[in-house]
Specification:
Chain lengths: 324, 338, 504
């Protein structure tokens, strides 16, 4: 049986990651340690989680620009709540996730019922979330709660002294759950259907309005979760944090092989997209002489390559159809 | 002229309301004095500070009229600012530095335009590429530092005044007027609108849509480079990380507040300029009234939402209905009065 | 009767799409629904499938009155539809498409294995054995059609509507599809078959209903009707006597032709043809929908790239590889779908009229406002365009007036060769006659016109010469007194033998 062509972009992503890792390893043998792997997961945990939500959104042909701000809001919300109230962090987490999920749902509702581009509605959401974060505090608020110290120091020491942290594991679980939702549920099938063509999806019986609301609610939920992880990672809440994370997440999704126009892609690919971007950063740190701005340029180039690849692939399948 | 006024009347009313509100809170808002060399006062400050968003808005209006969007303008600002600062510190002199910076903006626009018009990538994606990687390029030029300079000529562009008016103000008004005249005194404006509304029909009528699209993105790059030069000149340094950060969003907002549809077609540069003024008045107003400046994000968000609701195609039909009711009633009243 | 439609009516602003149409479908019957574009076929289908709500009339399914408000509801009632395109989702797997909405689940998750097994089972009934875990888009159109049929039958199971299902299939695929349709007929489904391939209609169907201009013309058993009669039902010829009056010989007999196209063709689209165009001549292009009429026009105007051939005038070769070159060569083209390819809806009447002229002058040489207004007023008067003002957005005008605006756009260019693709489609009778009168007017000045039309009387009335297109070939040319409805119908109806099947 020959390879299913829908796997090509995913394989390209994994291939690029592996080749990149190999090159890094040849240059810096220390790259192949559990320490580096553990850090790769930990450092990119918040990005990976939010990118899972973004993948679902992009699969449906939408976009969510609000997530970076929602992460910042989450951090601030947690920090301020813990400082001002005596609520247990878990209660605060639950409250936060309800808020961000409702926020996402509200945006989805506006997108569907106002028939406006997702891009502009979530842009307003981006302003709103960051604005509210600012209104709560304009300073960085440190989180000092015994429960938090516990979370921060929760890790499993892998052989080779690498740390598999709680938040790293949380990201992997999120990817897994995201993959199941996208590829193994009716909701996931509806997401792909809307991404493939809203009109046809409707003809096939998809409740487009409900699905759209759920998609953005899920993205909001993941952004909230990502905010929790980010607050554990940094131990503070800061309204100016994670500026531009939405774009990094979109880039990770695209580099992960998901087509930006929607309808095709894999959640697992997004994980590799995130790891590839993390790898570039790690490489630059290891190298020491390269400057951090090369990260942006390389990511931009990768983005271009993948978009052109998608374009070419689409054209190829179009030719295939014409020829058949 | 009368038509333009009618078109931008809602924006003018909004601006008046915002200004009135700010004046109520801060009575000195409209006070302008002459300190011997230049006019000073909060209102003058608004006119000066709205320069970057207004400049970006000019180009963005054209791009959005073609049913596109340019997310990279903030980044192009950073690149052009970096080029200008680098050129002036390398001793190239003002004309060469400015020309190089503008050239960088035009190149960036050409890149975007080719991706959109020739490769056929949707605009939001095509310009996203430059948006993410462009800051890296700007940092490459400044080598990651804030590249400062002391050239008074370049600094004049950002903080000098012409006949007492801040130079950035002169620059953005002049750019807006020139571009608007170029659009309306030549056929460009109509051809851009036709392409934005129906590219297929326009192409069949012989409009060269490809060249037009590229030109529009280049115009956006050009405007962004002017904004970048102003921003750099103002602080006498190029900050690759923060120059123009999120200004693309303000520019889009200015276009939308200006009454231009995100779905392309009819556009009004005058409307966008008033949109930019509204945004800056709100910013300044919040600052003056002692709120943390951060509040303006929430206000902007609410503003966008309100405008979105008003612009929504789903509600358009209802609006038409209400309008026709009003018209009918007026006609009735008129016919009954004599 | 499985399905009965009684005096169904549907009106859209400006057009009566359906007027009191009756239609019956028996179980175990394949019933052809025929008519040219705009005849009301798709409106009828959309009323059946719940995509449109009807204005009047009733629909009975198994004797029960039904009123589907959505396609999902129609599906649940038992009416399934397979369209030529936009059916299923090419980005989902075959199995997902087949079971969408009824996926077998376990613990709330889709059971992939059961899903694939179910899909294979469904396809096995049609004798198809493919990898159901591949994207639907990876398969040929024929397979996709069959998958769509399998899904429609599974989900609905009483009435199956096939809307141009064979348009892009080759002969072997059509055969496969037909055997499936026959099998479904034996199983007692009622099948509505819409197609413009008459050979297929004769081969497959039991009864034929013809619609024209929103009315039912006839329902007959297929074996009782012949091609000739069928085509004249479809194209209509009531106005024949009134037609063919004043077409005087302004044409250029014996003169050298103004334009010559030689061997112009495009692989798989239209076979190479020669065309000579004389000064002031009106050339008709007749043929059924899908025969290659529009493609001929697109090739001439450079909308489509030609794979062979050249154009010449008395000064030598002419480039016409894209619309801009064609315009420079003095051609004009009013496309068939004026809403999509013709008007720029939000621009004013004035701007729409001067658009092509301005594009040719270039952006830097604008027409003055006064000149624009003069042109607009001139053509509004000349063509009698009904608009409250030249500044009204053209999208707010009626269909006929929009057509006149597009026509004015080209007249303002003063082209030497104007191609009109179905210029009278969907416009009311009065405007219809006016546009024909206009064609007479403009050709007096020497402009040549290529008139594509599916209305015979229009061609007979207006043309000096009629070229008949069939199966993507120019097959006949009639001129002078030989232009009659009968002659055109005969030329179109020449049995195409198996050639219809190769149309893909």
């Amino acid at each position: 049986m020959s390879l299913n062509p829908r796997l090509y972009p995913l394989l390209a992503t994994i291939g690029i990651f592996l080749v990149g890792y190999l090159i890094s390893y040849l240059q810096f043998p220390a790259m192949l340690s559990t320490r580096v792997v553990g850090n790769l997961l930990t450092d990119n945990a918040y990005l990976g989680i939010v990118a899972v939500g973004m993948t679902i959104v992009i699969l449906s042909g939408g976009i969510d620009l609000s997530v970076g701000s929602v992460i910042a809001f989450s951090g601030v919300f947690i920090a301020v709540m813990l400082r001002e109230t005596s609520l247990h962090p878990l209660a605060v987490f639950a409250l936060l996730l309800i808020i961000t999920t409702a926020f996402g749902a509200a945006m989805g509702w506006l997108i569907h019922f106002l028939a406006m581009p997702a891009f502009i509605v979530t842009l307003a959401g981006m302003f709103l979330a960051r604005g509210v974060a600012y209104m709560m505090t304009i300073d960085s608020v440190a989180i000092s709660h015994p429960f938090y110290s516990m979370l921060t120091s929760a890790y499993w020491l892998m052989p080779g002294k690498g740390r598999l942290t709680l938040i790293g594991v949380l990201m992997l679980i999120s990817v897994l759950i995201g993959a199941i939702i996208a590829h193994r549920t009716r909701f996931g099938a509806s997401v792909f259907a809307i991404g493939g063509g809203e009109q046809t999806a409707r003809l096939m019986g998809v409740n487009v309005g409900r699905t759209t609301v759920l998609i953005y609610a899920f993205s909001g939920l993941m952004a909230g979760l990502s905010g929790i992880v980010f607050s554990i990672y940094t131990g503070s809440g800061y309204p100016l944090a994670t500026v531009g994370t939405e774009l990094t997440a979109i880039a990770a999704v695209v580099i992960g092989g998901t087509i930006l126009t929607g309808g095709a892609g894999y959640v697992i690919g997004t994980l590799f997209g995130v790891l590839t971007m993390g790898l570039i950063q790690t490489y630059i740190v290891f190298d020491g002489t390269l400057s951090s701005w090369w990260t942006k340029i390389v990511i931009g180039l990768l983005l271009l390559v993948f978009i052109l690849l998608q374009k070419g692939l689409l054209r190829l399948t179009a030719f295939g159809e014409a020829g058949s | 002229m009368g038509q333009t006024l009618k078109r931008i009347a809602p924006q003018l009313v909004t601006l008046t309301l915002v200004v009135a509100l700010v004046t109520v809170i801060f009575p000195n808002f409209l006070a302008v004095s002459f300190d011997g060399t230049r006019f000073v006062g909060p209102a003058v400050d608004v006119l000066k500070r709205s320069a970057p968003v207004a400049l970006l808005g000019v180009g963005m209006t054209l791009v959005i009229a073609t049913r596109g969007i340019d997310l990279s303008v903030g980044t192009i600002m950073a690149i052009s600012g970096a080029v200008a600062a680098w050129a002036i510190t390398s001793g190239m002199g003002l004309p060469a530095s400015v020309a190089l910076a503008i050239g960088a903006g035009l190149m960036a626009g050409l890149w975007n335009g080719c991706l959109v018009a020739i490769v056929g990538i949707q605009p939001i994606v095509a310009t996203l590429i430059l948006m993410t990687s462009g800051r890296g390029i700007a940092q490459l030029i400044t080598e990651g530092r804030i590249l400062t300079f002391s050239d008074a000529n370049l600094a004049f562009i950002g903080s000098g005044s012409l006949l007492g008016v801040p130079f950035p103000t002169v620059l953005w008004i002049a750019t807006a007027v020139i571009v608007a005249l170029l659009m309306r005194r030549t056929a460009l404006g109509m051809l851009i609108e036709a392409t934005g509304i129906n590219r297929a029909a326009s192409a069949l009528a012989g409009v060269n849509a490809t060249v037009l699209l590229i030109a529009v993105y280049m115009a956006s790059g050009f405007c962004a480079s002017l904004a970048g030069i102003v921003a750099t000149a103002d602080i006498r340094g190029a900050d690759a990380n923060n120059a123009g950060l999120w200004l693309e969003l303000d520019a889009i907002l200015a276009v939308v507040i200006g009454g231009n549809s995100l779905l392309g077609g009819r556009f009004s540069i005058a409307g966008t300029m008033i949109g930019a003024l509204i945004i800056q008045t709100i910013n300044t107003g919040i600052m003056l009234s002692g709120f943390p400046s951060e509040y303006n994000l929430v206000i902007k968000a609410v503003l966008v939402l309100v405008i979105l609701v008003l612009q929504s195609p789903n509600l358009a039909a209802d609006w038409l209905f209400v309008k026709s009711l009003v018209k009918a009633r007026r006609a009735k009243v008129r016919s009954e009065t004599p | 009767m499985l399905l009965s439609i009684r005096s169904l009516s549907k009106e859209f602003p400006g057009t009566k799409a359906l007027q009191g149409v009756d239609f019956d479908l028996a179980a175990g019957e394949v019933h052809a629904l025929l008519g040219e574009n705009g005849a009301g076929k798709s409106t009828l289908i959309k009323c059946l499938t719940g995509a449109y709500r009807r204005d009047a009339g009733e629909i009975l399914l198994d004797g029960q009155a039904i009123d589907p408000a959505s396609t999902a509801e129609a599906q649940a009632l038992g009416i399934g539809t397979v369209y030529q395109e936009v059916n299923l989702l090419p980005n989902l797997t075959v199995a997902q498409n087949l079971t969408f909405g009824r996926e077998p689940r376990r613990f709330g998750m889709v059971n992939r294995r059961a899903q694939s097994a179910r899909a294979r089972e469904m396809l096995a009934q049609y004798g198809i054995d493919i990898d159901v875990e591949r994207d639907l888009g990876a398969y040929s159109v024929a397979i996709r059609q069959i998958v769509a049929i399998a899904r429609a039958v599974e989900f609905s199971g009483k009435v199956l509507i096939l809307d141009e299902p064979t348009a892009s299939l080759d002969a072997a695929e059509v055969k496969m599809l037909f055997s499936i349709v026959r099998k479904l007929r034996e199983q007692g489904l009622g099948i509505i078959f819409v197609s413009h391939f008459l050979d297929q209609v004769f081969e497959l169907t039991d009864r034929i209903t013809v619609l024209r201009n929103g009315r039912k013309i006839v329902t007959e058993r297929t074996r009782d009707i012949n091609r000739l009669r069928l085509i004249s039902y479809m194209l209509g010829r009531e106005l024949e006597e009134a037609a063919r009056d004043q077409r005087t010989a302004t044409k250029s007999i014996g003169q050298k032709p103004m334009l010559r196209f030689e061997g112009l063709g495009c692989k798989g689209v239209i076979e190479p043809f020669d065309l000579e165009v004389g000064k002031g001549e009106v050339i008709g292009l007749a043929g059924l929908l899908g025969s290659g009429r529009t493609e001929t026009a697109e090739l001439i105007f450079g909308v489509r790239g030609a794979s062979s051939g050249a154009a010449q005038d008395d000064k030598g070769r002419i480039a016409h590889a894209n619309p801009r070159e064609a315009i420079a060569a003095g051609f004009g083209f009013t496309p068939e779908d004026r809403k999509v390819d013709g008007i720029v809806a939000e621009l004013s009447v004035r701007e729409n009229i001067i658009l092509a002229l301005q594009a040719r002058r270039g952006w830097a040489a604008p027409l003055s406002r006064a000149e624009q207004e003069r042109l607009a007023d001139h053509y509004i008067g000349l063509l009698d365009i009904r608009t409250s003002s030249a500044e009204k957005p053209v999208g707010e005008l009626s269909g006929g007036n929009q057509q006149k605006v597009v026509l004015a756009r080209w007249l303002a260019m003063n082209p030497r060769f104007l191609i009109l693709d179905e210029p009278t489609r969907g416009i009311d009778v009065g405007a219809h006659a006016e546009i024909l009168r206009l064609i007479q007017e403009i050709t007096k000045e020497g402009m040549a016109v290529l008139l594509i039309s599916s209305e015979l009387d229009e061609l007979v009335a207006a043309c000096d010469r009629v070229i008949v297109v069939r199966d993507r070939r120019h097959v006949a040319e009639l001129d002078g007194d030989r232009i009659t409805s009968e002659a055109i119908v005969h030329a179109i109806a020449q049995p195409g033998a198996a050639s219809q099947f190769e149309a893909a």
